[in-house]
Amino acid sequence: MTAPTPTAGETAAAIDRATAMVLVNLGTPDAPTPGAVRRYLREFLSDRRVVDLPRWLWWPLLNLVILPLRATRVAHKYASVWLRDGSPLAVYTRQLAQAVQRECPQWRVLHAMRYGTPSFTHVLEQLRADGVRRVLVLPLYPQYSTTTTASVRDVVETARFAIRDSGFVEAGKEAADADADAGVAPMAHFIGDYHLDPGWIAALSESIRDHRARHGNAAHLMFSFHGLPQRLADNGDPYPRQCEAGARAIAAALGLREESWTLSYQSRFGREKWLEPATAATLKALAERGIRSVDVVAPGFAVDCLETLEEVAQMLKQDFQACGGELRYIPCLNDSDAHARVLAAIARDALAATAAQPA
Ligand SMILES: C=CC1=C(C)c2cc3[nH]c(cc4nc(cc5[nH]c(cc1n2)c(C)c5CCC(=O)O)C(CCC(=O)O)=C4C)c(C)c3C=C
Ligand SMILES: [Fe+2]
Ligand SMILES: [Fe+2]
Fold first, then answer.
1. What is the pTM of this model?
2. How far is the centre of ligand 2, averaged over its atoms, from the C-alpha of 270 (Å)?
3. What residues does Fe(2+) bind to (predicted)?
4. Quick one: angle between helices 337-356 and 198-215, nearest 10?
């Protein structure tokens, strides 16, 4: 009996079983309930990369004030965008990893979350047990920030140390083999940002062009990015510069006139001064200038989530309508083929660059 002929994908898969790619996103609650949201927010907002107040001040504020007040309110928001298969961020991230897997049949492609499940540590242990020796980590944040990207890097290092320290031994191995194997965490390569990647700029420009061709051109295009405390930018976080450079490159690719687009920041949290201009205030100012239609795109989000679907496509849309205008939200690249191709190309380039480096 002859073995079945392998497909192109299977042949390629046989070439590099030792390499995997992990797409890492922020994470999201497991259910749109106050309990699940509380668990998620507790983990997220306990990360010193996200809130850097002294613990003696932050712990009581978080546990006794913020979580009790916020969990129920935010659970309602999640409920308003929840999909049949879960939170939008979880569903689209999972589907995006599957789409990238189709683009890269030679490697294993998985996803992990910085907070909640599946955790990066869990995914790395699984890959290591399957014999993967090299992991390419791609945080799903096009722009680098200490609050997001650096925090993913933290868990990558923690997970690699945890594997080394656990003296991980596979069942059924001979002692010598097991000794040789114990503590070998896969090597990790990390992609810090892709805010000016030409493929990414082209994919976003194309998606905006396509949306406008189908729904008509609004008078104005707004690039709305998740915000950050201004203090972090003042201390050198490159995030706002990368947002500006990306928005400018997309506007140029679309051939937009300077006065027909704006960059703004949304999702403010807490009392500190955040990056400005704020998306809500900018929309109000546009309405006051008599601009009646605005397209909003959110290039800081790889996939749609609470912040785009609830805050922009529901709340800000209603507010703008109340000012007599029409807001059209342009979805994120999500699990589109174009997005999967861009991320696959970024990964291939990153690995080719590491291979080209001298040993
Ligand atoms: C100090 C608090 C926060 C900082 C700093 C921050 C930075 C930051 N966040 C994203 C991406 C996302 N944030 C999302 C939700 C979200 N963000 C914060 C707070 C900070 N973010 C909170 C408290 C929440 C949860 C919702 C709420 O309680 O209001 C999400 C969506 C998650 C989902 O489940 O859908 C994303 C994505 C970036 C890119 C960023 C810095 C650049
Ligand atoms: Fe956030
Ligand atoms: Fe928000």
1. 0.93
2. 11
3. 226, 307
4. 170
The continuous run of DSSP H or E covering 108 comes out as strand 108-113
Q: Is the ipTM of this complex over 0.95?
A: yes
Q: Return the C-alpha torsion angle 51, 52, 55, 60, nearest 10.
A: -30
Ligand 1 atom closest to Cα of residue 74? 28
Per-residue pLDDT reduced to its tens digit, 82-134: 999 999 999 999 999 999 999 999 999 999 999 999 999 999 999 999 999 99
User: Please, are residues 242 and 275 in contact by the beta-carbon 8 Å criterion?
Assistant: no
Task: Tell me which residue has its CA closest to atom 3 in ligand 1.
Answer: 50
In one-letter notation, the amino acid at residue 150 is A
Judged by its nearest atom, the ligand closest to the C-alpha of residue 312 is 3
Residue 307 Cβ contacting ligand 1 at under 6 Å: yes
Q: 65: which DSSP letter?
A: I
Is 269 a pocket residue for ligand 1 (Cβ < 6 Å)? yes
Cβ-contact 259, 221 below 8 angstroms: no
Is the bond leading into 331 cis (omega within 30 degrees of zero)? no
